[in-house]
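User: structure tokens for this one?
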Amino acid sequence: DLRISKHRNGATGNIKLAFIGQYARFEDLAFDDRFQNVSEDEIDKSYVNNMTNFDQDNF
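Assistant:
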């Protein structure tokens, strides 16, 4: 639990956080969920890399 004090008239609520030990900070878990429910139709294919030949050497 992370408890944060607030002023008398402030709203209360719950926020899911993840501790990032490497940077000693907390981040909002909702940030990680932003692409979970994206359909294939919503993805702009022109920005997606073609990975079919990724393991082949082109040198």
